[in-house]
From TrEMBL:
This is Kynureninase. GO terms for molecular function: kynureninase activity; pyridoxal phosphate binding; transaminase activity. Its cofactor is pyridoxal 5'-phosphate. Pfam families: KYNU_C (PF22580). Its EC number is 3.7.1.3. It catalyses: L-kynurenine + H2O = anthranilate + L-alanine + H(+); 3-hydroxy-L-kynurenine + H2O = 3-hydroxyanthranilate + L-alanine + H(+). Catalyzes the cleavage of L-kynurenine (L-Kyn) and L-3-hydroxykynurenine (L-3OHKyn) into anthranilic acid (AA) and 3-hydroxyanthranilic acid (3-OHAA), respectively. Belongs to the kynureninase family. It comes from Microbacterium hatanonis. One of its GO terms (cellular component) is cytoplasm. Homodimer. One of its GO terms (biological process) is anthranilate metabolic process. SUPFAM superfamilies: PLP-dependent transferases. Pathway: Amino-acid degradation; L-kynurenine degradation; L-alanine and anthranilate from L-kynurenine: step 1/1; Cofactor biosynthesis; NAD(+) biosynthesis; quinolinate from L-kynurenine: step 2/3.
Length: 411
């Protein structure tokens, strides 16, 4: 009689087969080793550093900064926010050049874009946003709406499935000026229909702003083709730019001469060094800048963009699907019967690259896992996010993480 392997053995065997056949398997060695970490499952919050990042920074200190000194502004630094933005646009966003810039934090860029989008909207105009959106998005929208006499309308979609085009259509009114939504939900991982929702919003005569923080670098998109108006995203998750790395903003080319962002600084002026008495915004994406660009903060993500260019965003997406599918299989086999809830869409086409699990004990479980070298992400009130960054994560690592959660659960 043939014995049936226990779930853990079967899952690890399946992970081994997937890793052996993984066309992106070699990319795992392109990242700095995480000493003492058995499973890093938080790449959707902070990506691991790419190998060579320290050398890149050292060369910068000795060369462009240490030797080039202030001359380096003329020799590349002034153009870096736009060159790097164009590269992000080409590799990750489906955006032609001249529409993406790397600049401030996500919050500041979101503030700039929302403020620009509602400029001139008369009192009583409306902004539509999901009630469960990331706090920054909600806080920025509420603050600007109050300051400009606008009304905020709230969407309340299914917390697992996420917002749909039909729900957005039902939430629009003749007074809606702007819709602000997230491409991949930061909790459930639900992937919104960007093309469908953007079309619905445009049919109503409103502008569409997407938050790409949990999709940039892991989910292919076609901002230009889908007619997206505005977008913002961070670079320290799947773009591995490091803690506090600057964010990026996208503005559709046809809108750029209409965008007047509220933080008027010298770097956004038409003539940066004129030092004139009146602010006149620059043409194109330079008008999104305010202060001096964070050149040092732009260094680490360049290594990840090199890897993304080699791998291709479609291949990254395919591995994301196999990773999350295996994680959900592991949930079914070792966690479902323990009272853990699956809070992520089962359809791989409807989710990003993280899986959300729920259990009342998960705050304490996460604390124990961190001590044991297994690092997922806790999200209150009782969720563990399993963030699977495709280029730096193996299938075996994902399974080890799920098995560790099962072992740490109280009886």
């Amino acid at each position: 009689m043939t014995s049936v392997p226990d779930p853990a053995t079967a899952l690890l065997a399946a992970a081994g087969e997937l890793d052996a056949a993984d066309p992106l398997g070699s990319f795992v060695d392109e990242f700095e080793p995480a000493v003492g970490v058995d499973a890093y499952l938080d790449g959707n919050s902070l990506g691991r550093p790419v190998r060579g990042t320290a050398d890149r920074i050292s060369r910068f200190v000795a060369g462009e900064w240490g030797t080039g000194l202030i001359r380096s502004w003329d020799e590349g630094w002034m153009q870096l926010p736009f060159d790097l933005g164009d590269r992000i646009g080409r590799l990750a966003l489906g955006a032609a050049g001249g529409q993406t810039v790397v600049a401030d934090s996500t919050t500041v860029l979101l503030y700039k874009l929302v403020a620009a989008a509602i400029r001139g909207v008369p009192a009583g105009g409306r902004i539509l946003i999901e009630r469960g959106n990331f706090p920054t998005d909600r806080f920025v929208v509420e603050g600007l709406a109050e300051a400009h006499g606008l009304q905020v309308d709230w969407l309340d979609p299914d917390p697992i499935a996420g917002v749909t085009p039909a729900e957005v259509a039902a939430g629009l009114t003749d007074l809606t000026a702007l819709v602000v939504l997230t491409h991949v939900d930061y909790r459930s991982g639900a992937l919104a229909d960007m093309a469908g929702i953007t079309a619905v919003v445009h049919d109503a005569g409103a502008l569409m702003l997407w938050d790409l923080c949990h999709s940039a670098g892991v989910v292919p998109m076609r901002l230009d083709e889908w007619g997206v108006d505005l977008a913002v995203g961070c670079s320290y998750k799947y773009l591995n730019g490091g803690p506090g790395a600057p964010a990026f903003a996208y503005v559709r080319a046809e809108l750029q001469d209409r965008i007047e962002q509220p933080i008027q600084g010298w770097m956004g002026a038409a003539d940066v060094f004129a030092m004139g008495p009146i602010y006149r915004p620059a043409d194109g994406m330079r008008r999104l800048l305010s202060g001096t660009p964070p050149v040092v903060g732009m260094l680490p993500m360049q290594g990840m963009l090199d890897l993304l260019e080699r791998a291709g965003i479609d291949a990254v997406r395919e591995k994301s699907r196999t990773l999350t599918t295996l994680a959900i299989r592991a949930y079914d086999e070792v966690l479902a019967e323990r009272g853990v809830d699956l809070l992520t869409p089962r359809d791989a086409a409807r989710r990003g690259s993280h899986v959300l699990l729920g259990h009342p004990s998960f705050r304490a479980v996460t604390e124990q896992l961190w001590l044991d070298g297994v690092i997922p992400d806790f999200r209150g009130p009782q969720g563990i996010r399993i963030g699977l960054s495709p280029l730096s994560t193996t299938h075996a690592e994902a399974v080890r993480g799920i098995l560790a959660i099962a072992a740490a659960l109280p009886d």
